[in-house]
């Protein structure tokens, strides 16, 4: 029986921006090898697979090369599909069971709000190899549970950074976040995310990275709510707030394409 697959641009309100994800809403669990092959075929940074369970949905995420334990933009895409197609009313909360525990999504004021576990960052001395990788005029570092962060001196340096993907893949975890205070009006901080160790050289907009970036910048800026911009070629906006050991990520999404896997 054909399986519908929907491509959705996340963390954007316009087509062909933000971060594209494929979403397969299934009737029942699927073989993990099949899911990995579908993700490789879609060749997007993430493909989400979900099916209904008691009081919610079971949700898994795959890059073209591996399964991951947390993904923001594909969760946003999944919630967008459920709300848009009427599987869940917009005044209800969606509950997702995932490798990172129970996640929720709510629709409010045209934005979808995701409740994710926070990943607070601790300041570290950057390894010399990483300092050489950044090439920024001034760099400070931090380490979160899932992320290695390098703070640059300016937004310009973040935007113009030329990554060495092979060298980044060799770093612990195979990924790197770079970030700086924003110079854009109304935006608090900018970032870029590289994850060649997971088969994604540069991720356009990384929701899960903001579980670390949010607490990091809130402690620096002293603000309870932030607006972030991920300065990839596609670009996208993320609202961020912290509630105890949870981070609330806000985003918008646009459906781009629908098809069938035959």
Notes on the protein architecture:
With 262 residues, the protein is α+β, with helices and mostly antiparallel strands. The protein has two domains: 3-118 and 249-261, Diaminopimelate Epimerase, Chain A, domain 1 (Roll), CATH 3.10.310; 122-243, Diaminopimelate Epimerase, Chain A, domain 1 (Roll). It is 21% helix and 42% strand. The chain is built from six helices and 18 strands. It has an 18-stranded mixed sheet that branches. A hairpin with a 2-residue loop joins strand 16 and strand 17. It is globular, with a radius of gyration of 18 Å. The N and C termini lie close together (7 Å). The model has no long low-confidence stretch (mean pLDDT 94).
Summarize this structure as a short list of keywords or feature phrases.
Diaminopimelate Epimerase, Chain A, domain 1; alpha+beta; 262 residues; 2 domains
Structural domain count: 2
Q: Please, what is the average pLDDT?
A: 94
Please compute the radius of gyration using only Cα atoms: 18 Å
Please work out how many helical segments DSSP would assign: 6
How far apart are the first and last residues' alpha carbons, in Å?
7 Å
Assigned CATH class of the largest domain:
Alpha Beta
Order of helices and strands: EEHEEEHEEEEHEEHHEEEHEEEE
Instruction: Give a short account of the largest sheet.
Output: 18 strands, mixed
Question: What's the CATH architecture name of the largest domain?
Answer: Roll
CATH superfamily of the largest domain: Diaminopimelate Epimerase, Chain A, domain 1
